[in-house]
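QA checklist item 7 of 12: single-chain prediction sanity check.
[x] sequence parsed
[x] length recorded as 366
[x] structure emitted
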Amino acid sequence: MPQRQWVAAAIQKIEADFNRSADTHLIPLALPAYPGIEVYFKDESSHPTGSLKHRLARSLFLYALTNGWLHEQSTVIEASSGSTAVSEAYFARLLGLPFVAVMPASTSPDKIAAIEFYGGRCHLVDDPGAINAESARLASETGGHFMDQFTYAERATDWRANNNIAESIFKQMADEPHPIPSWVVCGPGTGGTSATLGRYVRYRRHPTRILCADPEVSVFFDYYRSALAGKPDTSLVLPCGSGIEGIGRPRVEASFIPTCVDAMLKVPDALSLAAMRYVSTQLGRRVGGSTGTNFVGVLQAAHKMHAAGQTGSIVTILCDSGERYAHSYYRPDWYTERGIDTVQADAALARALAGEALPGLPMCEA
């Protein structure tokens, strides 16, 4: 019974924290070249830990608690060098539990500082491909729990209710000119968000389609294409991670459910970052690279709708603030160091904003 009492108190703390937090905003953005098509950003940067991953971390903690995987002496461990680790450190501190983020040694000092701000400890490994195995080893060694976001993201979220992101979007759209979105655009990171969105629209019997915009260095697009062909290839592996932080993976993750997705788009990093810079100028504040990837998906969906003579709405996700990338994406010499042609990417984006099709972007539809 003492363990059950601790779990009940821990869940109450998380629920109280949720009740103290307002819902995230839905921000419109005009696309003059696409009359009759309304675009909205679901601003997840306004969560207490500043990103979409705040929802995931809350769900993962509730899932682990109700499964009996966490107890009063647990060390919480996650394989993450980014926003998930920041958000999990926040919830671990809320419950008085130690938190360890297992991450590549190349992780930026800014991210390490953000995790440590919430009381987390960063465990650095030389081989980025070994972070899952090292997380499992640490969990076994400490008697702790490896949260394993890439396995549990899709099943930890209650996609029917519990104020998930899909339910929140549709409630906020209720009084808009086109309350049922034609498309919802997201990026695949764990796969949890695309699964939640896809399941919700089917459960509520909405005609909304889910478009996943995959970054340049990621296996999800190719995996999706193989799944559409009836031969899902779970063995796909890349030697390095995505250049767009927070989305894309070098291997197929268990939480990515291809049948929850209606279409996928492969987006070059240079175009993602051009879109990121454009959205930042339109909103008057910096956004992250994954928001740029999503916006390229929005333009693709808008062009398809306009070409078909359709009107309607498109909702996408503003995943996190660009302030986290002040020393990378928002530094001009960062692009020079990597040989990224910003002039060509900006020109391609400008043509798309003027109503032209984005050339040469691979897209698959179910």
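[x] summary fact logged: The two ends are 49 Å apart (CA to CA).
[ ] second reviewer sign-off
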